[in-house]
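Lecture notes, structural biology module. Today: joint structure prediction for complexes of two components.
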Amino acid sequence: MSDPKLVQIRGLTKHFGKAPALVHAVDDVSFDIARGEVVGLVGESGSGKSTIGRLILRALDLTAGTVEFHGREIGKLSQREIRPFRRRMQMVFQDPFASLNPRLRIKDIIGEALDAHGLAQGAARERRIGELLEIVGLQADHAARFPHEFSGGQRQRVGIARALAVEPDLIVADEPVSALDVSVQAQVLNLLQDLRQRFGMAMLFISHDLDVIELMCDRIVVLYLGRVMEAGPADVVSRHPRHPYTKALLAASPRPDPDARHTRDLLKGDIPSPLSPPSGCVFRTRCPLADAACAKAVPMMRNAGPDHYFACIHATETTSPEHVR
Amino acid sequence: MDFTALRLFLKRLFKRKLVLFAAIVLALVVILAIAAPWVAPFSPTGMKVSQRLRPPSMVNWFGTDEFGRDILSRVIYGGRASLGIGMAVVLASMIAGTTLGLLAGYFRALDNIIMRIVDAMMSLPDILLAIFLVAVLGASAGNVVLALTIVYTPRVTRVVRGSTLVVRELPFVEAAHVLGVSTWRILSVHILLNVASPILVQATFIFAYAVLAEAGLSFLGTGVPPEIPTWGTMIATGQQYADQAVWLVLFPGLAIVFSALSLQLVGDGLRDMLDPKLRKAL
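The predicted structure, tokenised, for the full assembly:
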């Protein structure tokens, strides 16, 4: 137990394409995930959430920066060298229809994870597949079926079983419920929480839905145009946001309390093109606090309390006084 | 695939009566070719000079040729060579084309090299390229298969590459990659299974083209040597007598038309069934 950090990413950067059409998908992102911790990655479409997840898993190659996993730098390993690490980190995908091969039976989809790392053979493999299906709330005799025989929620459970098969330390869940019906979303979220308590794996939970993030996560990282705007403990960030973008996101999220609808300072316009991000602070084109100084330099991370950081040169105290629990 | 899936598959395929009819014709031709020694009334090479150029009769249903050989028997035996060559070409070009197509579609570095060669080959007319190759290699059944395989492989490559480009971007391929599944297994299981339908459709078309091309090559004298009865060689030698004994070319010609047409129709049926709802159908 030398280092409690499971994942440490520093200066993570990913550019797609070449010079005239260079897309800045992720720019200089740094954060940690501790063992057993659930970190929520939140932001609008195009903010680079999924790209970060894929960079950590090395489904994409990094442009710059480092990813440390269990204290070992994996950002520059070749695809062959990365293979042993794949046992320790897995992914749950957004689209439960496209993420399962329609031509394979459930047992082959899950069994493939076992085969890839030589985890179980023969009768033990069969048993393990049945066990995994039961863990995610399906039945062992579903193993012989094809994906199209299942509903979206059930398919997502199969996807989770596949990720669990290798007993990973980290699961990257890329919008795992956004393609599901609302009633099914809750079931899958409950399942993920149960599994986390049962197996104690860490999770990088990617979503654009702040309510889901608040429910699931210990810490939140707020992204905008590939950069971190604010990061901190989930309850602190959601109750005392410091960055104007986080405030706007929270204000846009519907509250069940009808009397609470007083904030109307919603964001206008669209996220700027990542082909030519604004100079200085990338949020300044839509920020209510922006002035000339914002265009000059990329804002440094400022500390706003224990483990709570934000990147804005203007943001002051929140309207309510500081109450960090 | 279990039997219920197979039944459903056939039921959908044969919903169109024309496809069913074509499949029956095709099956009949294949069965006759396989069972040739038992169903052919005479030896395909047995000459009876007294009986030469006889029109169709109760004894010789399709008439006799310039050496008095029974044309019906020769057509049945000729099916063996024609269909056999077609089948061999299909198998060989499927294997080669699928491999090249998967490689070109999955490994971007190979794409340009493979596809430019394929483009160059596809710019040459099929039959011309085949004639050239047989002329260089020498006329034999094996070389006809080789030449036609070279001619049709680029078609398969193209189709497979296109489908691979689509499938490789699907999340289940990424899922397998993240899982640590080997590239070989991703290609041979995840991608191949999902590009199988267009390959299957292409196979039926190439079968039809190959039967036609073999007949064309034999007719032009650059195909199978004339002593082996194929439908193409029968027409080639029969054409000298066509003005007095039209049955010499009529019956092998009809055999070509029926088998090529029924193959095309079955291929059409397969394509119509597999293409639109390919994911939900099976």
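Point to remember: The first strand of chain A starts at residue 5 and ends at 16.
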